User: Which sequence fits this backbone?
């Protein structure tokens, strides 16, 4: 055990998860690569949990942060803040939500917590619909709506949460149905559920479930849900903490795969917009955002230095069409990985879109999760210079592949080859 690992264990919580038997200290990065304290170089296919969205040490972001830090770093929301207004204007315009208002937080957890406050206040109900296998953060209220046992340390909650079918296409009672039949069955389940409860405030859903292993429903499910929700006045919250900003390639927002019935009432975001700086936020229609009848501020949400980073990062993303790159390079990577695992009986599915790809591992000949092999693949990939993540529902057995959106074709091929070797060595 390293000295730093020993110090970590002595002073930090036991439940603070670390990857690898010999945990890694990352000291610096550039582009799609990072280096550890021993000088080893890694191709980064996880990006700080989908947070380093464009590239490590992106010069445009570094320059913006440095210049802003030389002027003023922070003043709180009690004062006018030009970078915050600038970024809010751009996000509101990109959101697709009419008359949108934006509130900045410091994390996705806090963004989802704020969205729940807005929805329950606006609807005067503390009942929330959430998806099975979901994850929405580590605050008390966010844990209360998380449908993933591995990330739910308590059953206590300020909310009454009802879980809906549909977030996982290839498992559960409707898995054998066609896409159209799957959507119809999930909608009928939602209608039945609503017939047995007091009117909920909102449905919160990740368009692609992140911690759940990059699972998703067929396109159009949430649009069909929306038609039912609208009849009851129930709000739709799209948790775009991991799917936003073009990562899925086909769309700028994950909800756009379900956009037939219009945009969500509330969108939450975080992670990639700051490229590592601590930015989260909520976008909502003005009547929802303005429903609170007491004073509120954010001490650190929207601080000048993080807003400068967000503006520079968003500009780079749009100017260099990183959404298009995610679509093109991500499509090649998905097909390459499917070819890699074609003869591996322990790989149940390669799924995802853009640069948000899941590889689900199961014990050969069964649907039983194989978390031991998932952990072994992470170790083997690291040994050969590749960092990936893991997740999953009933057990942690899905490999999570989510590189920065500037990934090149050559880097995608390199990463796929390393992952192929790691899978082969752990059969």
Assistant:
């Amino acid at each position: 055990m390293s000295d730093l690992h020993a110090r970590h264990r002595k002073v930090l919580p036991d439940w603070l998860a670390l990857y690898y038997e010999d945990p890694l200290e990352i000291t610096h990065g550039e582009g799609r690569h990072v280096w550890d304290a021993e000088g080893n170089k890694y191709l980064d296919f996880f990006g700080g949990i989908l947070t380093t969205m464009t590239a490590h040490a992106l010069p445009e972001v570094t320059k913006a942060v440095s210049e802003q830090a030389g002027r003023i770093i922070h003043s709180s929301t009690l004062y006018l803040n030009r970078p915050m207004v600038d970024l809010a204007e751009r996000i509101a315009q990109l959101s697709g939500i009419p008359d949108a208002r934006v509130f900045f937080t410091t994390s996705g957890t806090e963004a989802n917590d704020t969205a729940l406050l807005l929805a329950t206040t606006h609807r005067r109900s503390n009942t929330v619909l959430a998806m099975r296998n979901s994850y929405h953060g580590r605050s008390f209220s966010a844990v209360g709506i998380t449908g993933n046992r591995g990330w739910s340390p308590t059953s206590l909650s300020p909310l009454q949460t009802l879980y809906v079918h549909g977030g996982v296409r290839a498992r559960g009672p409707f898995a054998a149905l066609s896409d159209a039949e799957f959507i119809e069955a999930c909608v009928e389940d939602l209608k039945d559920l609503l017939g047995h409860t007091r009117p909920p405030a909102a449905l919160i859903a990740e368009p692609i479930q992140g911690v759940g292993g990059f699972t998703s429903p067929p396109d159009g499910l949430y649009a069909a849900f929306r038609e039912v929700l609208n009849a009851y006045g129930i709000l739709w919250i799209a948790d775009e903490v991991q799917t936003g900003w073009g990562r899925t390639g086909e769309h700028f927002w994950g909800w756009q795969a379900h956009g037939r019935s219009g945009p969500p009432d509330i969108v939450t975001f975080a992670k990639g917009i700051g490229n590592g700086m601590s930015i989260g936020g909520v976008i909502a229609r003005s009547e929802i955002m303005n429903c609170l009848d007491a004073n509120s501020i954010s001490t650190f949400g929207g601080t000048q230095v993080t807003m400068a980073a967000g503006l520079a990062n968003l500009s780079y993303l749009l100017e260099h069409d990183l959404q298009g790159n995610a679509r093109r390079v991500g499509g090649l990577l998905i097909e390459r990985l499917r070819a890699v695992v074609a003869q591996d009986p322990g790989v149940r599915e390669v799924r995802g879109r853009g640069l948000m790809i899941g590889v689900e591992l199961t014990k050969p000949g069964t649907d039983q999760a194989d978390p031991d092999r998932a952990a072994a693949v992470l170790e083997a990939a690291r040994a050969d210079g590749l960092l990936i993540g893991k997740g999953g529902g009933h057990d942690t057995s899905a490999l999570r592949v989510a590189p920065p959106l500037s990934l090149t074709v050559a880097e995608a091929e390199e990463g796929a080859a390393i992952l192929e070797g790691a899978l082969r060595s752990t059969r």
Notes: DSSP finds 13 helices and 15 strands in the chain. The mean pLDDT is 96. The radius of gyration is 21 Å. The longest strand covers residues 347-353.
